[in-house]
Amino acid sequence: MFRHRHRWVFGMLDLTRRYIVARIRKYILVLASLLAAGAGSEAWASTALSSPYYISYNVNGLQYQVDNIVLFEQTANSSGLTWAFSAPAGSSTITDPFTKYDPITSTFLMGTASNLPGDPPGQDHLVLFTSSTFAQSAQNIAFGTLFPDVLETTFVSTLRDYFRSGPGGLPPSDPQYNFLFGFASEYGTASPIEGQSPIAFDPGGTFQAIAFSNGQVISDPGTVTLTAAVPEPSTWAMLLLGFAGLGMLAVRRKTAPSCCVA
């Protein structure tokens, strides 16, 4: 009985050892993939990142606080919306809390700003964080001219409701989700200005915030950063337990008595 129990214990230790080796290899691949992706701006979209990472948006020189921010992110296999952030005036970083596994091919952000110069108190405006090229080409163009099928007031109220829905946002079956997702899908890869770049930007490029109703660029160019997803506390616990088990296994093998067969 005692011998069978020992066999079970050491069998579990061997499984733990294999798990640890696999996890170590995985995180080595994470670092290698991210280093390769950071080697050049074009690598962001073309590198096949199969390891987990986080994406952050570095907002620079924002002139007014932007609230109710929703991210639209698209990969080769899927696309979706992520609730919801705020960016204070100045420079700040918005980090998507969800781990990514596929490389993001295009992305942009939608939010609201209040009390721009000349506004009556409490008036809200739509703000889009778009490719720098699009932001520059859309300056001084009214929202209704660029997007004649969408009311800015509807857009703003939808973002507010989406923000108030809580972490994770609204389910895809919700009409407000469909409104935002439909806009993002339509204009994420196609520009409302003929011959110009689309709203969405490649993560290797730069982006700027443009406020409507009249197309006012309100930030300096910002950039995107990818960061390796570090192991969770439970993973660290498993690693430590595994190393302890390996040590016990080594001691057991070293001190085990030898026997001879006559």
Kindly list the characteristics that best describe this protein.
262 residues; alpha+beta; 6-stranded antiparallel β-sheet; 7 helices; 9 strands; elongated
Which blocks of ≥5 consecutive residues have pLDDT under 50?
33-50
Order of strands, main sheet, comes to: 3-2-5-6-7-8
**Alpha carbon gap, first and last residue:** 26 Å
Main structural class: alpha+beta
What Rg do the Cα atoms give?
A: 25 Å
Shape: elongated
Run of helices and strands: HHEEEEEEHHHHEEEH
Mean pLDDT, rounded to whole units?
78
Percent range of helical residues: 25-40%
Question: How many β-strands, per DSSP?
Answer: 9
Number of helices: 7
Could you describe the largest sheet, including whether it forms a barrel?
6 strands, antiparallel
Query: What proportion strand?
Result: 25-35%
InterPro entries: Ice-binding_C (IPR013424)
Organism: Bradyrhizobium campsiandrae
Protein name: PEP-CTERM sorting domain-containing protein
SSE diagram, text form:
Elements: H1 2-37, H2 43-46, E1 53-62, E2 66-75, E3 79-87, E4 90-95, E5 104-114, E6 124-131, H3 132-137, H4 143-146, H5 152-164, H6 175-188, E7 207-211, E8 216-217, E9 220-228, H7 233-255
Antiparallel strand pairs: 1-4, 1-9, 2-3, 2-5, 5-6, 6-7, 7-8
InterPro entries: Ice-binding_C
Domain Ice-binding protein C-terminal: 229-254
Pfam family, one: PEP-CTERM
Written description of the protein model:
The protein has 262 residues and is of the alpha+beta class. It has seven helices and nine strands. Strand 2 and strand 3 form a beta hairpin.
Quick overview of this protein structure:
The chain is of the alpha+beta class and 262 residues long. It has helices spanning 2-37, 43-46, 132-137, 143-146, 152-164, 175-188, 233-255, and strands spanning 53-62, 66-75, 79-87, 90-95, 104-114, 124-131, 207-211, 216-217, 220-228. Helix 1 crosses helix 7 (233-255) and helix 5 packs across helix 6.
